[in-house]
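Appendix B, record 7
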Amino acid sequence: MLRLLSTFSLSLFAVLPALAETLTVYTYGSFVSEWGPGPAIEEAYENRCDCNIEWVAVDDAVLLLSRLRLEGGSTSADVVLGLDNNLMAEAIAHGVVREHGLEPMNYSLPMDWTDSVFVPYDYGYFAIVYDSSALPVPPATLEELVAGSEQHDLIVQDPRTSTPGLGLMLWIKAVYGDNAANAWTRLSERILTVTKGWSEAYGLFLDGEAPMVLSYTTSPAYHQLVDQEDRYKAIIFPEGHYTQVEVAAMSAHTSQQDLARDFLRFIGTSGFQSIIPTTNWMYPVIDLGEGLPSVFHDLPRPKSALLFSSEEVKASRSAWAQEWLEAMSFN
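Structure tokens (predicted):
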């Protein structure tokens, strides 16, 4: 009888389908929110791979790097999605990512891109977005913004925890150089609050807590397409705007290298890229042709794009963050 049961059990297992593989992707919270690109990308990729995506999210991408460093070899991440061009050298130096082994792709980016570790998935330019109903005459230049105001009319993010916050810190440094600390001291007079991440800051802005917020030149596209609202606008400064390229990479400790590599390959296809503009509200990294909503063609772009290399950011980020802390007068 026992032998018959054993034989039956073996036969049963033989006809059961193999369990689908699970790809664990570390990212930031807004990416996997119900209005972000995560749900649609999950559906599209699971239909392609016959696998399951498990998202693990933190508040913002700077915290993503910190988590990977803390977890080390015990991490469950197969793919890291949400670091940006400013954090690439640090991620490599801390040994949390590995080479992807993919063939070079023909990207549509504002710079040449050939990288053996990181795959870009969107890009944009940091900007001050304002509510034209609450602030009919916004600052016309970055210097006019920095010069301060009697009103606490600006919300920004912390460069230690947020990639937009880091972007603003680098933006100020790129424009003001050795005078960046003085620029921060003056700008602090008009800052209402410094939030941990982008979602909190933009939520406060939409609630009317302040008429200006640090975001992206592409943010007004959301309001135009979804809200049918034209009151929210990005200020284009003549001093230039700092560029962000968001990237994904294979975790250094993944046991799913083939699946992780396939997901990175999927990022460069229209199946992934067509989701980005109207969910992450950034520019795609490939030419979507007529698939790119017309509003993106009409958005104003900066005449000057500012950028530090990731190696420069790695070498100086800690010192520049300390400079920011001291200038903002809260240690």
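Remarks on this record: Residues 1-17 have pLDDT under 50 and may be disordered. The two ends are 74 Å apart (CA to CA).
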